[in-house]
Amino acid sequence: MQREIALSWLLLATFAALAISNRVEALPFIRSRSLWNQFQEDYPEAAQELLDRIENFAVYAQPDNAKRGLDLGLNRGFSGSQAAKHLMGLAAANYAGGPGRRRRSEQA
């Protein structure tokens, strides 16, 4: 019974979609200049400056180490605690008074 009701609603929705799609007209394709070409022809210096800025932004946006993602080693068999210890070690290494043996002159 439910299957028949679902099929009847599906057929009704299909016929409604077909009826609506036959009545709606699409916009005609107009072969005109695109907005960028028009801007480039009207303001060539501004267009070149815009392209230069985009290029510089793309070059300087990513630092050198941006290729490397956050690798916790979970896909290589490390546990979560090992990954956490590794990240804590990296954070300590970047800290000014980070890990390592202290010199006697600094301890005094």
Verbal overview:
By secondary structure, the protein is mostly helical. The protein has a domain at 34-62. Helices cover 61% and strands 0% of the residues. The chain has helices at residues 2-23, 35-42, 44-60, 80-94, 104-107. Helix 2 crosses helix 3 (44-60). It is flat, with a radius of gyration of 32 Å. InterPro entries: DH2-like (IPR034439). GO terms for molecular function: diuretic hormone activity; G protein-coupled receptor binding. Keywords: Secreted, Signal. Belongs to the diuretic hormone class 2 family.
Number of helices: 5
Shape call: flat
Distance between the termini: 88 Å
The computed structural class is mainly alpha
How confident is the prediction overall: mean pLDDT? 75
Low-confidence stretches: none
Beta-strand proportion: under 5%
Largest sheet: none
The helix/strand series, from N terminus to C terminus, equals HHHHH
Number of strands: 0
Oligomer: single chain
Q: Give me the Rg, rounded.
A: 32 Å
Measured as a percent range, the helix fraction is: 55-70%
GO cellular component, one term: extracellular space
GO molecular function: diuretic hormone activity; G protein-coupled receptor binding
Family: Belongs to the diuretic hormone class 2 family.
Keywords: Secreted, Signal
Features:
mainly alpha, 108 residues
Brief description of this entry?
The chain has 108 residues and is mostly helical. It has helices spanning 2-23, 35-42, 44-60, 80-94, 104-107. It has a domain at 34-62.
Task: Detail the topology: elements first, then pairings.
Elements: H1 2-23, H2 35-42, H3 44-60, H4 80-94, H5 104-107
Main location: secreted
Protein name: Diuretic hormone 31
Keywords: Secreted, Signal
